[in-house]
Amino acid sequence: MPPRLFASGPEPAALLRAAVPAIALCGVLGAALSFLVPTTAAAGPTVKVAQAAPVQPGFQRFAWLNAWADHHTAPGGAAAGRLDGVPRMRIVVGHLRRTAVDFGVLAEVEAPQREAFESFGREYALVSTPDATDDVVFYRRSVFRLVSRDAVTMYYRHGARTTAPVVVLEERSTGQRVGVLPVHFPASIPAAPRQKRWRDVNAGIVKDVVARAEVPMVVAGDFNQRNDILCALTSPGTGLVSPLATHAECATGRRAPIDQAFLSPSLRPDRYQVYSGPSARRATDHGAFYQLRVRLSGVA
């Protein structure tokens, strides 16, 4: 039986069912209006997309972005005048190739985009869920192999249940392992205000997954929060690190984007980059792709 992501003990689903009511209660007590909308990122250096050389074994490039669900730009969608989901995914795959990305996360993906990714990016494998709108993990087949996948229940607008894959990958050249959890928290918008409750619930679930993981973790995606989630997930009790700021600087530093990545300290993230050129602005309504380098040390 392949190694599991989580430490031994009760089944993950049972633990989450027991934990979610308590987490949700905390979220209700701390609920507040937070009108967060996707905008172009302002954090980190912006660099020109260029051909990148592969990194040495043990160091891999991780990328994340919001793929802007296909229905938004499909006929009848709110942004039907923008580029459709399939050619947008072709842009994403081209970017991953040019920047030599080895693994990563795509938030807000729908069936036509998943199919396009698998067709255009055959050097990558995709790990998704049965949800109509999905958050997925991808990895370069020549660099990683899939060790295991679990599923965790998370919550979107008004508490609608969603499923996120929790994936363990093994670097082929070294045997080092890393876990990946993609996320998409609900935004508070005029049509769906007061979603902070569910963002708080999801943050608690992320902390629980990280606490029980037996491998170093990367949690990335669209948090629809800025410095508040940066502070929450870099807190001493959670133990993750961000390429943007330390916990001591999280509230006073530069304004964070809503697309973020958090990592186990042993992964030693560096070389954080934001790509926000014309291709990114065509491919996603967030206007940016994100990338950093990690060192796979094998220590959780």
Poorly predicted tracts of residues: 8-51
CATH superfamily: Endonuclease/exonuclease/phosphatase
Order of strands, widest sheet: 3-4-2-1-11-10
Task: Give the biggest beta sheet.
Answer: 6 strands, mixed
How helix-rich are the residues, as a percent range? Answer: 25-40%
Name given to the CATH architecture:
4-Layer Sandwich
Percent of residues in beta strands? 25-35%
Number of domains: 1
Mean pLDDT across residues: 87
Number of strands: 11
Q: Per the principal axes of the C-alpha atoms, what is the gross shape?
A: globular
The structure class reads: alpha+beta
Model description:
With 300 residues, this protein is an alpha+beta fold. It has one domain (60-296): Endonuclease/exonuclease/phosphatase (Deoxyribonuclease I, Chain A), CATH 3.60.10. 25% of the residues lie in helices and 28% in strands. It is built from seven helices and eleven strands. The strands form two sheets. The protein has a six-stranded mixed β-sheet with strand order 3-4-2-1-11-10, with helices on one face. Strands 5-6-7-8-9 form a five-stranded mixed β-sheet. Strand 5 and strand 6 (161-171) form a beta hairpin. The model is unreliable at 8-51 (pLDDT under 50).
Summarize the structure.
This is Endonuclease/exonuclease/phosphatase domain-containing protein. Helices cover 25% and strands 28% of the residues.
Topology:
Blueprint lengths: L11 H18 L29 E8 L3 H4 L11 H14 L4 E8 H10 L3 E4 L5 E8 L3 E12 L5 E11 L5 E8 L11 H17 L4 E6 L4 H7 L25 E5 L6 E6 L2 H6 L5 E7 L5
Parallel strand pairs: 1-2, 7-8
Antiparallel strand pairs: 1-11, 2-4, 3-4, 5-6, 6-7, 8-9, 10-11
Helix pairs in contact: 1-5, 3-4
